[in-house]
């Protein structure tokens, strides 16, 4: 207050009393019009859209104070100057009015509309769509020669890596890499007896799935690295096991494990209609006889994904046959 | 105590049938012949199993150590039985104790618990808790002691 008062006194000194009144009035009007123009501003620090009602400079009335609308991916499209949409955009936190999102949001074909198909108009409509994939061509005027070369180098590196991975895989199997997800699968073709039980021609050995069953590495004679802590690994949850396996196991060992699992479901094997879990879920089981009377059991999922393989002694295999191949009786599958 | 003798003649017949692909390796009769040897070897080594379970129940060894050692002993039994199954001279004189089936069921129960403890191929699938595992082993141990 004292600062404002001293400012007015200084103004009167410089411009005189009448000049000061005119100046103050002019400044006041300018503030009002500036606020009217900047109805909607984005507070970048708090990531919220701050909606200021026109003409309200400092209002104590809760009905007309500043409202904050959550700024999320869904609400981005609703940030608009269209007055008809203002009721939905400006929420009074005291009233707890549910925030409504245009049901058409995201449902249109984005590639056909210039603004990425977002309804409601406004600045977002003409903005870039981050989800749209851009395919660069060398002839494209925006492509710099150096950038183009680095892209080409990157793709050739990927191709070399892929070739190296392919060379590690048992030639009996097919290598299949999903570029987007990064999953490296080994596809195993099964014989007619197994096909009859599985009702599919191929079994997919997924790299992430195998990473969750590394405690069977020894069962399949795959060397375990010295720094691989098995007791620590066993305590981890599924996602953590995948991460730990990716960090600790070299790609060669991972592929070797996948190869061994592929061998476990191919060659001289026999498939049975088995069951898993307390609800006796039908699950195909593939058995391979190993040297020394051991049996290698492999469970296959509904989608043809290899789930797990482990070794059973003669005694436990006998029990399994007596139980009509019912495994994991206690598990809630 | 009455002791049963291994029927070597029938076992040889079954091996011949398997060689000619007339029966598979999952033939129950052949399997029971093979498994019976392993069961008897486990029975003969019951003290080792009992000591290991005792150590686990008294918290001398960790659950992980218990599970891996138990399965290791079971594998050793399987290796020994394979050796005997290839030696027909030994098989001729091989005999079985009477309460072998009951003992074998207990060993299998514990071995299955140990082997299936870490199975989790789905996000929703969680292994049984350590407390439950401990309780189940203890339950089997009480019956196990009767074979002493």
Overall outline of chain A: elongated
The greatest interface here is: A-B, 38 and 39 residues
Largest sheet descriptor of chain A? 5 strands, mixed
Question: What is Rg of chain B?
Answer: 18 Å
Order of helices and strands of chain A: HEEEHHHEEHEHHHHEEEEHE
Total DSSP E strands of chain B: 2
Mean residue pLDDT of chain A: 70
Number of strands of chain A: 11
Strand content of chain A: 15-25%
Helix content of chain A: 25-40%
Oligomerization status of the protein chains: heterodimer
Based on Cα principal axes, name the global outline of chain B.
Answer: globular
Q: Pairing-aware structural class of the strands and helices of chain A?
A: alpha+beta
Count of spatially separate domains of chain B: 1
Task: Tell me the strand order in the biggest sheet of chain A.
Answer: 10-9-8-7-11
Strand order of the largest sheet of chain B: 1-2
Distance between the termini of chain A: 72 Å
Helix and strand pattern of chain B: EHHHHHEHH
């Amino acid at each position: 207050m004292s600062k404002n008062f001293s400012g007015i006194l200084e103004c009167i000194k410089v411009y005189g009393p009448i000049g000061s009144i005119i100046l103050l009035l002019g400044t006041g009007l300018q503030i009002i019009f500036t606020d009217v123009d900047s109805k909607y501003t984005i507070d970048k620090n708090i990531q919220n859209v701050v909606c200021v009602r026109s003409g309200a400079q400092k209002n104590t009335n809760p009905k007309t104070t500043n409202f904050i609308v959550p700024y999320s991916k869904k609400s981005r499209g609703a940030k608009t100057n269209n007055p008809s949409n203002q009721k939905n955009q400006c929420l009074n936190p005291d009233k707890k009015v549910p925030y409504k999102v245009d049901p058409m949001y995201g449902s249109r074909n984005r590639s056909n509309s210039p603004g990425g198909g977002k309804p409601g108009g406004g600045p977002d409509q003409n903005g870039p769509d981050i989800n749209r994939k851009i395919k660069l061509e060398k002839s494209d005027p925006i492509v710099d020669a150096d950038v183009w070369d680095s892209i080409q180098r990157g793709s050739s590196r990927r191709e070399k890596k892929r070739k190296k991975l392919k060379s590690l895989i048992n030639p009996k199997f097919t290598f299949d890499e999903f570029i987007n997800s990064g999953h490296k699968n080994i596809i195993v073709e099964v014989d007619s007896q197994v096909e009859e039980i599985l009702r599919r021609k191929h079994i997919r050995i997924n790299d992430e799935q195998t990473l969750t069953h590394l405690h069977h590495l020894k069962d399949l004679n795959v060397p375990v690295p010295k720094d691989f802590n098995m007791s620590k690994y066993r305590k981890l949850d599924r996602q953590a096991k995948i991460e730990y396996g990716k960090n600790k196991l070299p790609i060669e060992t991972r592929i070797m494990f996948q190869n061994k699992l592929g061998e476990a479901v191919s060659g001289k094997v026999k498939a049975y209609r088995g069951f898993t879990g307390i609800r006796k879920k039908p699950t195909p089981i593939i058995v391979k006889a190993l040297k020394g009377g051991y049996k290698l059991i492999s469970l296959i999922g509904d989608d043809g994904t290899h789930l797990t393989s482990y070794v059973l002694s003669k005694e436990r295999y006998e029990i399994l046959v007596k139980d009509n191949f019912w495994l994991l009786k206690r598990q809630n599958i | 105590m009455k002791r049963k003798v291994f029927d070597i003649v029938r076992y040889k017949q079954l091996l011949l049938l398997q060689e000619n692909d007339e029966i598979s390796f999952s033939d129950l009769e052949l399997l029971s012949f093979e498994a019976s040897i392993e069961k008897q070897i486990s029975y003969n080594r019951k003290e080792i199993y009992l000591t290991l379970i005792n150590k686990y129940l008294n918290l001398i060894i960790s659950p992980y150590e218990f599970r891996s050692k138990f399965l290791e002993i079971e594998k050793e039994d399987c290796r020994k039985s394979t050796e005997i199954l290839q030696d027909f001279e030994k098989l001729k004189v091989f005999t079985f104790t009477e309460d072998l089936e009951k003992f074998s069921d207990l060993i299998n129960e514990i071995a299955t618990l140990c082997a299936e403890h870490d199975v989790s191929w789905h996000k929703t699938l969680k292994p049984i808790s350590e407390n439950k595992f401990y309780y189940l082993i203890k339950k089997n141990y009480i019956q196990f002691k009767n074979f002493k």
